[in-house]
Specification:
Blueprint (H helix, E strand, L loop, with lengths): L1 H17 L7 E6 L2 E2 L3 E4 L2 E3 L1 H13 L2 E6 L5 H7 L4 E2 L13 E2 L4 E10 L14 E5 L3 H6 L6 H4 L4 E5 L2 H10 L4 E5 H10 L4 E3 L5 E5 L2 E2 L4 H16 L2 H8 L11
Parallel strand pairs: 1-5, 1-6, 9-10, 9-11
Antiparallel strand pairs: 2-3, 3-4, 6-14, 7-14, 8-11, 8-12, 8-13
Helix pairs in contact: 2-8
């Protein structure tokens, strides 16, 4: 009897990860809920460009969509344990190429610098001796660190402050705790739109990168299904319409 109960419990756990009791597939997306316009919480609802794309994939596949906000530092544990099916949230491919099974890139994203409106910082060179904030475990944080591709720029800072998320980083910028924040251009534009007149974006970019959907290494079958449907969504214009809804410029879209 005890052995039977263990088997039943194990089966229930597996069903909870990928399939509902009615046989339909449950597709669980792991995302950072503090990363607008790609994934964020508004009231009681999770919204964002990437979440809407995932919802559209599920609608076309007949899957049940589940949005699972995660601690960004724990994303690999969530993926490898099966708690989520993929990481889909403005997820940078560069520097992570061998860590996941990736879809094709679908967004071209740049890393920019956000400062307070009226700041004397106008160029990247003006960051010399300044305190710059970044989100933890992001390519721009790694690039600006002492061993990164942009270490020469990072070495000019007084300090590179690593924070849990961009909301905290931008709050620190607003309160004067940091002089600038290096971040994704889409997130920077959303912050500027949400708080008009508060911030400015430098004209120079720190680096360019692309976004893809990251699946557990070796999960090629699920990646292929999602990728094929994603291409359909962009091919018929639905992807561009979703991008426009969130203020993402057409020239940033890599799938047409």
């Amino acid at each position: 009897m005890k052995k039977l109960m263990i088997i039943i419990a194990a089966a229930a756990a597996l069903a909870g990860c990928g399939e509902k009791s009615d046989g339909t597939r449950k597709f669980t997306v792991g995302f950072d809920a503090d990363f607008p316009p790609y994934g964020f919480k508004e009231g009681a609802e999770y919204k964002g460009f990437d979440l809407d794309l995932a919802r559209e994939v599920c609608a076309r596949k007949g899957w049940t969509f589940v949005a699972n906000p995660i601690n960004w530092d724990a994303k690999d544990m969530e993926l490898n344990s099966g708690s989520i099916d993929c990481i889909w949230n403005g997820f940078t491919m560069q520097g992570r190429e061998e860590s996941y099974t990736w879809t094709v890139p679908y967004v071209d994203n740049s890393q920019v610098v956000l400062v307070k409106a009226g700041s004397p910082i106008k160029t990247l060179a003006d960051l010399k001796g300044k305190i710059v904030g970044v989100q933890t475990d992001t390519p721009v944080q790694k690039a600006l660190s002492k061993d990164g591709d942009k270490k020469e720029l990072g070495a000019t800072f007084k300090e590179l402050v690593v924070m849990p998320n961009y909301n905290q980083a931008v709050n620190e910028l607003n309160m004067g705790g940091v002089d600038a924040v290096a971040m994704d251009v889409g997130v920077a534009k959303k912050k500027m739109a949400d708080l008009p007149g508060k911030f400015e974006m430098l004209g120079e970019i720190v680096m360019t990168e692309t976004y893809g959907i990251g699946f557990k290494k070796g999960n090629v079958a699920l990646k292929d299904e999602v990728e094929a449907t994603l291409k359909e969504i962009f091919a018929d214009g639905t992807g561009a319409n979703i991008a426009a809804k969130y203020g993402i410029e057409p020239n940033a879209l890599l799938l047409k």
